[in-house]
DNA sequence: TGTACATCAGTGAACGCGCGTTCACTGATGTAC
DNA sequence: TGTACATCAGTGAACGCGCGTTCACTGATGTAC
């Protein structure tokens, strides 16, 4: 072997991980491929030996980040997590202050909506999985209603974390996080709402 | 007068309006000044006669879009709007499908968090105003609690609209909007939650 | 065992292009005398 | 009334730069005979 077995796939993986971090930190449009490759210890020319286009990397990096967070979610669930600890695990200062290793939806959601169909379809598949996982944290009830509530909870925490990142007043930012937690609890555990007729 | 009175400020206003639309459609980072100026019927060189930098335009365009939506909100409130009609006025297919004339937060929130302090401070001021307006739609109660709920409602609708735009399945997108409306009603009208201790 | 060739991940320069920004200039209209 | 000059919004070319993408080449290691 010219390179040890798995060298090529390890290189590719490294590029995906760097991209997943940098896209979340700066947004997809603001990140250049030369910088990503340099961070991965390579030169720009090697990129197209691994990916067809920047859009293909966007799709892979997004899926990688979503898979990682899904694994974290499942792992913490195995430790007996409930809705409140999940909310607090998401809406906290550390997550707010480290978008590069955080939720890709909070960092990139509007941008995802402007990307290629394949990228949006990949996001859609992951979203469905996430909603299932969130629904599992809710008190037993009608499954359709649990899914609707879980979907709204996802929207709530994503929007709330974005708000906490956008405001310039640190104290207000903390209040936003806490308001999101309380609202998430009210939504998830509160008086059940009728499913849409 | 070489130009009719108000010509200069009218030109500036035209640039701001074009930018506010294009930023929301494509994201700030993906929009170039040459294109904005061309849409406003001008050439690139005229830009710096009106703005100090692209960042200054971003701040002005964001404020313009936020002011416009605030005015709409107040106008519809004068017509006797309640929480449900406000939620339906936001979480609907027309809004989802026309980001260029829609909520700047839904289109740009993660990006705002990466912009200059002045831009984030301007956003923060507008957010506070919005939260007050939303709180006014809630049943009378403790003001601090109404503010917290209103903040979460804002996060909920922003995140939900972004989700509806990002997914590639139109039917799922419609379900997301409806789930957001139901959750917004539950949050706003449902069992009151204690304020954080 | 030694030589010629194949493989292939990665290099680094180059492509055309658009970016944000600068600046000398235009030209229509005003004022000064 | 006529001429010289001031004003200023807008023009359009140019600046250096980084973008996504392409491609001829390198060099280390494998295989063939």
Provide a descriptive summary of the structure in words.
Two copies of one chain form a homodimer. The first copy, chain A, is mostly helical. Chain A is built from nine helices and no strands. Chain A has helices at 7-26, 33-39, 54-78, 83-90, 93-97, 104-112, 117-135, 143-166, 170-189. In chain A, helix 3 (54-78) runs parallel beside helix 7 (117-135). The radius of gyration of chain A is 19 Å and the shape is globular. The termini of chain A are far apart. Mean pLDDT of chain A is 93; it is low at 192-197. At the A-B interface, helix 6, helix 7, helix 8 and helix 9 of A face helix 6, helix 7, helix 8 and helix 9 of B. The structure holds a DNA duplex (33 and 33 nucleotides).
Task: Summarize the entry for a quick read.
Two copies of one chain form a homodimer. The first copy, chain A, has nine helices and no strands.
| Number of separate helices of chain A | 9
The pair of chains with the biggest contact is: A-B, 60 and 60 residues
The main sheet of chain A comes to: none
> In angstroms, what separates the terminal alpha carbons of chain A?
63 Å
Write down the Rg of chain A.
Answer: 19 Å
Oligomer: homodimer
Structural class assignment of chain A: mainly alpha
Which strand-content bin applies to the residues of chain A? under 5%
Please provide the count of β strands of chain A: 0
């Amino acid at each position: 072997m010219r390179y040890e077995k798995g060298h090529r796939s390890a290189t590719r993986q490294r590029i995906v991980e760097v991209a997943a971090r940098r896209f979340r930190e700066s947004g997809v449009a603001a990140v250049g491929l030369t910088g990503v490759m340099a961070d991965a210890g390579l030169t720009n020319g090697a990129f197209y030996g691994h990916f067809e286009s920047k859009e293909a990397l966007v799709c892979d990096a997004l899926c990688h980040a979503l898979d990682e967070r899904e694994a974290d979610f499942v792992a913490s669930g195995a430790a007996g997590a409930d809705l409140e600890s999940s909310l607090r695990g998401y809406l906290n200062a550390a997550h707010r202050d480290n978008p590069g290793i955080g939720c890709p939806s909070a960092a990139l959601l509007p941008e995802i909506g402007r990307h290629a169909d394949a990228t949006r379809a990949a996001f859609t598949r992951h979203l469905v999985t996430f909603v299932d996982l969130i629904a599992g944290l809710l008190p037993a009830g009608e499954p359709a209603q649990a899914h609707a509530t879980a979907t709204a909870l996802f929207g709530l925490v994503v929007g709330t974390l974005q708000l906490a990142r956008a405001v310039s007043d640190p104290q207000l930012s903390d209040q936003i996080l806490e308001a999101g937690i309380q609202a998430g609890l009210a939504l998830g555990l509160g008086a059940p709402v009728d499913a849409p007729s």
